[in-house]
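FAQ

Q: What does a record look like?
A: Structure on top, sequence underneath. For example:
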């Protein structure tokens, strides 16, 4: 199915290129009777500088979509394009390099390394990518998430919201083309969640960052520019700038 045009907004002066695009992507698990079609012929383009939330009932394929788009999972059919790179045609070494330089990933459970300080966690992707580590850049990225005073703190010395902001700084330090977020506010209280969503908004509006975010929370989804709804591995609905109440109503319709 082709996603509605709103997923790939047009702006004055022409067409906004896609940061990441899925073309007729399917992903199956298992064989024969046990076969599950987690994604079923999904075509969607996420425009540069857009923030899209992905919602749907449990098991509808949200995480599978995110993982396939980020090159963390192979697809059974179709193509995933990250800018000019075809992830589905990339060899392992190229895929690893693309994941390190072009993709940022933020998880519900933060996934920070407990023994490292905030700044060491933020440096890690640069180290892994074999890039020069600039202390100035690391300080700037930590400052951009409001944690310049916490550089030397370890994760256990930080609140959940602060840990997630370190995780966002870590994901952003390589200046990725796309930031993928899997339930980034799922483990946070509502005040910390609002702060993290405010930070994501700044990244999109201030830096033109592209964000694709899976969430179960209608309020979080309503913070994005648009919301895609999945059901049984297919895109079944799309809303542009909906309110949290509209998101909740559409989701209830799918879960019904
Ligand atoms: N490794 C796997 N092996 C077999 N089936 C899988 C695997 N991963 C996911 N699935 C199945 O694929 C379907 C989609 O799963 P996915 O995790 O993408 O859904 P989701 O919408 O993210 O769900 P939730 O909201 O519960 O996290 C489900 O039926 C799930 O059981």
């Amino acid at each position: 199915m082709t996603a509605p045009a709103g997923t790939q907004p047009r702006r004055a002066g022409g067409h906004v290129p896609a940061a990441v695009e899925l073309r007729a992507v399917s992903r199956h698990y298992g064989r024969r009777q046990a076969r599950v079609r987690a994604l079923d012929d999904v075509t969607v383009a996420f425009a540069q500088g857009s923030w899209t939330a992905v919602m749907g009932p449990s098991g509808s394929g949200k995480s599978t979509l995110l993982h396939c788009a980020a090159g963390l999972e192979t697809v059974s059919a179709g193509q995933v394009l990250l800018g000019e790179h075809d992830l589905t045609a990339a060899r392992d070494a190229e895929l690893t390099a693309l994941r390190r330089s072009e993709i940022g990933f933020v998880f519900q459970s933060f996934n920070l390394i407990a023994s490292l300080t905030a700044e060491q966690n933020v440096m890690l992707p640069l180290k892994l990518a074999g890039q020069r580590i600039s202390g100035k850049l690391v300080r700037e990225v930590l400052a951009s998430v409001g944690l310049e005073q916490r550089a030397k703190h370890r994760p256990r010395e930080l609140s959940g919201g602060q840990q997630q902001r370190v995780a966002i700084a870590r994901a952003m330090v390589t200046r990725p083309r796309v930031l993928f977020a899997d339930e980034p506010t799922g483990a946070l209280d509502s005040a910390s969640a609002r702060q993290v969503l405010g930070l994501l908004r700044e990244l999109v509006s201030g830096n033109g960052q592209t964000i694709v975010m899976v969430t179960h929370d209608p309020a979080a989804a309503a913070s994005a520019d648009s919301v895609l709804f999945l059901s049984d591995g297919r895109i079944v609905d799309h809303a542009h700038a909906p309110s949290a109440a509209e998101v909740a109503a559409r989701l209830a319709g799918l879960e019904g």
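Q: Is there anything notable about this one?
A: Residues 29-30, 36, 38, 56, 58-64 surround adenosine-5'-triphosphate (CB under 6 Å).
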